[in-house]
Write a structure and sequence with these properties.
The complex is a heterodimer. In chain A, helix 2 packs across helix 3. Helices cover 45% and strands 23% of the residues of chain A. In chain A, strands 1-2-3-5-4 form a 5-stranded mixed barrel. Chain A folds into 2 domains: 54 residues; 100 residues, OB fold (Dihydrolipoamide Acetyltransferase, E2P). Chain B is mostly helical. Chain B has 2 domains: 67 residues, Rna Polymerase Sigma Factor, Chain: A (Orthogonal Bundle), CATH 1.10.1740; 78 residues, Orthogonal Bundle (Arc Repressor Mutant, subunit A), CATH 1.10.10. Chain B starts with a helix and ends with a helix. Classes of the chains: A alpha+beta, B mainly alpha.
Chain lengths: 207, 164
Amino acid sequence: MNSSEAKKKLLLYRRSIDDGDPQFQGALEHALRDPDLAEWLREQRSSYDAIRSKLCEIEPPSGLAERIIRQRPIPIRRGWPQVLQLAAAIVMLAGIIAVWLNVSHTKEHSLVQGQEIVVKGEVLDMTCYIARNASGPKHAECARECIRKGLPVGIKSEDGRVYLLVGKIKPVNGELADYAAKTVTIRGRETMRDGFVQLQVEEIRKF
Amino acid sequence: MAVDPEFENLVNLYYRDLYRFGFSLTRSEADACDLTQQTFYIWANKGHQLKDLARVKGWLFTTLHREFLQTCRRREWLSDEPISEEAQELPPVPTDVVDRMDTQTMLEALGQIGEGYRAPLVLYYMEDLSYKEIANVLEIPIGTVQSRIARGKMHLCQRLSETK
């Protein structure tokens, strides 16, 4: 290798990151024996470092990382076991709907206007509870956000019964978001239609 | 919405480098922010498809570059000839000239270089990726990467010399 060939190689040499790259080894060895080439390489490195340091001065605006983290979408990540579970759930759901449609033909929109009841239990984010059986303290932060954003809110009573919570003329999400995954007592009017139970909230007692 | 610590760590680890790359390509803070955010947005949706987690950094740079190219309406003809003698004889820009410059001047000089040269040149100076990784990010052969960097350096040195 002569000096010209070595220069051609060393023009792209960046020290540490390229040290393991065999394409530079011969040229670097040549620079050790050739003082002019060594001086040329020193100047190239110096210029490289100066330009690199200018690029490293570019700083992102403050708050960019927080913005990215805040705007993270909720990914739908499913492996094969989850896909099979989902498929099974869809088949079961289709069966339930078929039965329900059959029943609804014979019993048009059965409505049960219940009496006033008091329910003590955990405040649920219904979306995550139904989809993933998510509840309890580990899920509190997610539940709080979901309820605050307006997703359906419910309560699971101590006997295991789940009620969808609705207000009289306004949503109750704002009042219940901070009590997500916590225990409250709710007085309200129980209404059931076609098997679905909701509790129209009259009073919320928080602990 | 629950915070995902893995996602947060990844953002904190790479957002600066991605922003620098994006800013060097676009010379616009807003565009660089958009590119960086869009890159992590795509990661959140598709990142799980990446089997080899050691390649996360390259994946992120590739994604940002693809997003950048999608926003570019114009493409230019690029010469991928081997490095010529004139590139070898290229006098390096004196360090004091670069030191006296502000980053904006440097970016303006970079901006005058064609996009096809600018992206490999910025990745070369950022020193985060090997030549093989740069080739993967830009989805071009390694020889093309090296010839574009050599030519890009020549163009940059000419621009910087003119600002003396």
